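Page 42, continued from yesterday. The earlier attempt failed because a stray header line got pasted into the input along with the sequence. Redoing it now with the clean sequence only.
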Amino acid sequence: MITPVMPTYARIDLLFERGEGAYLFTETGERYLDFASGIAVTALGHSHPHLVEVLKEQADKVWHLSNLYRIPGQERLAERLVANSFADTVFFGNSGAEANECGFKTIRKHYYAKGQPERNRIITVSGAFHGRTLATLSAGGQEKYLTGFAPRMDGFDQVAFNNLNELRAAITAETAGIVFEPIQGEGGVRQATIEYMQQLRRVADEFDLLLMFDEVQCGMGRTGKLFAYEWSGITPDVMSLAKGIGGGFPVGACLATEKAASGMTAGTHGSTYGGNPLGMAVANGVLDVLLEPGFLDHVTEIGAYLKGKLEAVVAKHPKVLSAVRGTGLMLGLECVVPNGEFQAKLRDAHLLTVAAGDNVIRVLPPLIIGREEADEAARIVEQVAQTWFS
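This time it went through. C-alpha cells are written below.
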C-alpha cells in the first residue's frame, strides 16, 4: 500500500527536532555532526541568528506578492549579485532545476533573437547532474535517473568530462552553448582543471557559443570564493545558483550577461513564487554573511585544514579509503569499500555525509565550522575506517 508521502525517497529512519550551528538533534536529544548540510544547502548552519532575524522581520511584513509588482528585496539581491559577479542581470526561481531551466531557455532564446533558431543544441558532459525535471535530467544524461521517463528530451549532446577534443568534435552548426559544473557534486566531487575551464571559454568564443556554468552546488562560497568560476580567471555567460544561496529557504537564481540575456524579454519566462519577499530576505541575509571581510578566507583555511586531516586518515587506511577530492568545503572521500556502507557507519557514529557517484562520499559541512568540528569529523572517519575489518 502506498504511503501518504509519495515513496520516491529511500528515507533514513531519523527524526531531527532542531538544529544549531553544525549540529542536528533528534527528539531524544542525540546529537549529530551535520557534514551533509541538506546537500550543501544550509551553508551557514542551522538556526543562524542573522537568518532567523531577517526571516522573522520579513514575516511580519509581507510573504508573497508575485512578480506582477516590484519586490525591493529582489532588486537589492540582484544588484548585489551583479556587483559581485560577471553578470548584468538575474532571474529568481525556487530551485537549482528551475535555475538551470532558465539558463537553457536563455541560451536558446539568445540565438532565436539573433535570427538563428536552428542553433538550439547544448553540449553537456558525462557525470553531470542538473536537476530532476525532464529537461535537466536529459541534460545530465545519467541513465539511472532517466530510466522510466522516456522519451529523453532532445537538444543535448553529451561528451566526456575534461575531454576538450571530444567537446570540439561535438560542435555543429546547431550548437548554441556549453553547460558545465566546475565541480561535479552528485557525479563524485569531480573537479575540472583550471586549464580545461579556460579552454572552454576559448572554444565558446571561437565558435560563438554561450558558456553556462552550473554552480548550484559549488557556488555561494562553498569552494572558498563566492563563485567557483573565479578560480579559473575566466567568466561564463550564464550561471545557475541555488542550494546555499537561500541557506535552507528555497531560492534559485539564473545570472547572465546582457548579451546572453538579450532575448529574455517580458513574457518569455516566469515564476509564481520565485523572488518572493521571504526568500529574498533570507538570501540577502546569506549574502550579508558571505560578503563579510575574511569570511571566504575562513572557508579556504578551514577547508584546507579539514582536507589535510582527512588525507591523514586516508594515508593510514588505504584498504578503506583511497583519496580526498575537492576544494574548500566541497570535499569527497574516495572509497575502496562500498561508499553506501561507509556512509551508513559514519551515520551510526553520528556524522552525517552524502553519497555520490564514483564510489565517493561527499563531505559538505556548513561554511561556519571551525577546527573543533573538523577535528571531530576526522576522528569519526578515522574510527570507522579503523574498525572496518575488525
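Notes: The domain at 51-290 is CATH 3.40.640.10 (Aspartate Aminotransferase; domain 2).
Reminder to self: strip header lines before submitting.
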